[in-house]
Amino acid sequence: NCVLGDVGGWFTDVCYLLFQASLHVFVCLLGLVVLCHSDCFFEQLVIKDLKNPPTGCVDKDGQQHAFGTNWMRDCISCSCTTDGLSCCNQLPDASTVEIPEECELVVNKQACTAKAVLKSDKTKDCILT
């Protein structure tokens, strides 16, 4: 155990490095949880005519998509199954994500990415606690 007894200087160094690595992994995972929050919806497939069943899903723009297909448009990822149309916004909604006061959410709509950065220095990622 890293807290009990000191076997030698190297043991303490190893324990410290493991602690630091664990802390970095925790901070990164916490950031992913915050930034992966997205809005999703599911639209159940409606069969209007049993003699002429649908062959896919129709998106909000009226485009037909075959069963088993996936696509992304405007950072919204969708899939069509025999159950219906399922879509999720790949960008977090700034109003639903808890970001510390000294940080802000920067969204890149071309790459469909978002990250928290310090307001005082946008080149530095924000450490989410």
TrEMBL record:
It comes from Sparus aurata (Gilthead sea bream). Signal peptide: none annotated. This is Beta-microseminoprotein. Pfam families: PSP94 (PF05825). Keywords: Disulfide bond, Membrane, Secreted, Transmembrane, Transmembrane helix. Its main location: secreted. The keyword DNA damage does not apply. GO terms for cellular component: extracellular region. Belongs to the beta-microseminoprotein family. It is found in: Secreted. PANTHER family: BETA-MICROSEMINOPROTEIN. The chain crosses the membrane at residues 16-35. InterPro entries: PSP94. The lineage of its organism: Eukaryota, Metazoa, Chordata, Craniata, Vertebrata.
